[in-house]
Amino acid sequence: MITLRMQVDVRTVDEADGLAGHEGDEFCHVPSGELELHFAHGEPRRLRAGERALFSSHRRHAYVAPSPEGATLLVVLTPPGQAPAKPLAP
Question: What does CATH list as the number for 2-78?
Answer without folding.
Answer: 2.60.120.10
